[in-house]
TrEMBL record:
This is tRNA N6-adenosine threonylcarbamoyltransferase. InterPro entries: ATPase_NBD (IPR043129), Gcp-like_dom (IPR000905), KAE1/TsaD (IPR017861), Peptidase_M22_CS (IPR017860), TsaD (IPR022450). Required for the formation of a threonylcarbamoyl group on adenosine at position 37 (t(6)A37) in tRNAs that read codons beginning with adenine. Is involved in the transfer of the threonylcarbamoyl moiety of threonylcarbamoyl-AMP (TC-AMP) to the N6 group of A37, together with TsaE and TsaB. TsaD likely plays a direct catalytic role in this reaction. GO terms for biological process: tRNA threonylcarbamoyladenosine modification. Its cofactor is Fe(2+). It comes from Pusillibacter faecalis. It is an enzyme of class 2 (transferase). The keyword Protease does not apply. Substrate binds at residues 134-138, 167, 180, 184, 274. Fe cation binds at residues 111, 115, 302. Its main location: cytoplasm. Its EC number is 2.3.1.234. Keywords: Acyltransferase, Cytoplasm, Iron, Metal-binding, Transferase, tRNA processing.
Length: 333
């Protein structure tokens, strides 16, 4: 079955066609990042307007690149939560009209479930159950993926998402938005070990995380250096920061795997492209004897193929929606 998939939860408008949940026929991602970079972060109203401008032409392009005509499409999948509400609503409204017009099922897809499903596209042999570390701009979750549509959160951030923390740290280091990738590149220039940064624990919830203290520490360090005219070792701070994030994430994933008995671990979301986190996960999984799946960077960030992949399994599970389907800024996985 060929699924036409839409993703518009933040600042990427993405449309694509995925066959049987595993084969990407097209995946057109139009990023608005350059526009939001002018403001140092995503401006929700601008994001919504840009989605409106782009989505129709991208749909034509996605069908063309997939070699599909409208009658080949068996269902429409769309991100309906979580995300910037205006942005999600654009994709959802458009997807509804396409599904209605084609007379095919409309499949609602949770954005984080989509990120996890990116692994099905990169690794054909992968099937649940497994453990997923979902780390993006808005979410940081350790998820027990019991089955394609049966997921339980084992650990989560209590405040900022890892990606939000990367973006703020990058900003005070003078790097452009979105800062995760530039900070990663800067961090590669240093072995670190210069700055002592906090590693928060959540009392009574060993698998939960907190990144706000780490974010504040980096901001304070940068501001203090500026005030006293001290030269900041930017590469070392970037490296030590990335290490602090990784030191928060990786031991918790290993502990979650031990507790749940899972021996397969997948990473997902934009931050899963980070080189320090990837290397630490690889090392820890080799040591523990777990199988690790790390999707390529293009499948870590927001895209439509991941929505088409998860959409297929939601469809098989009988999850369809009517025209009354709403969008949600926050929604449990
Ligand atoms: O998954 P994603 O594209 O969008 C959301 O669903 O949120 O994630 C975007 C986040 C941004 O915060 C971006 O800075 C971060 O992923 N990111 C990275 C890297 N590449 C992207 N963070 C750390 N290292 C990277 N290499």
């Amino acid at each position: 079955m060929k699924i036409l998939a839409f993703e518009s939860s933040c600042d990427e408008t993405a449309v694509g066609v995925v066959e049987d949940g595993r084969r990407v026929l097209s995946d057109i991602v139009a990023s608005q990042a350059d526009l939001h970079a002018l403001y140092g972060g995503v401006v929700p109203e601008i994001a919504s307007r840009k989605h409106v401008e782009a989505i129709s032409a991208l749909t034509e392009q996605a069908l063309r690149e997939a070699g599909c005509s409208r009658k080949d499409i068996g269902a429409v999948a769309v991100t309906y939560a979580p995300g910037l509400i205006g942005a999600v609503l654009v994709g959802l409204s458009f997807a509804k009209s396409v599904a209605f017009g084609l007379g095919v099922p409309l499949i609602p897809v949770h954005h984080i479930r989509g990120h996890i499903a990116a692994n099905y596209l990169a690794f054909p042999e992968l099937t649940p159950p497994f453990l997923a570390l979902a780390i993006s701009g808005g979410n940081t979750l350790i998820v027990d993926v019991r089955d394609y549509t049966d997921m339980v959160i084992l650990g989560a951030t209590r405040d900022d998402a890892a990606g939000e923390c990367f973006d703020k740290a990058a900003r005070v280091l003078g790097l452009p938005y979105p800062g995760g990738k530039p900070l990663d590149d800067l961090a590669r220039q240093s072995a670190g070990g210069v700055y002592r940064l906090p590693h928060a624990q959540v009392d009574g919830a060993p698998l939960d995380m907190s990144f706000s203290g780490l974010k504040t520490a980096v901001v304070n360090l940068a501001h203090h250096a500026e005030q006293v005219g001290e030269e900041l070792d930017r590469a070392a701070l970037a490296r030590d920061f990335a290490q602090a994030v990784s030191d928060t994430l990786v031991p918790r994933v290993m502990e979650a795997a031990r507790q749940s008995g899972r021996d397969i671990i997948c990473a997902a979301g934009g931050v899963a492209a980070n080189s320090v986190i990837r290397a630490d996960l690889e090392r820890a999984c080799i040591e523990a004897g777990y199988r690790l799946y790390l999707p390529p960077a293009a499948l870590c960030g927001d895209n439509s193929a991941m929505i088409g992949a998860q959409g297929y399994y939601e469809y098989l599970a009988g999850h369809q929606a009517g025209m009354e389907l709403n969008a949600y800024a926050n929604l449990d996985i």
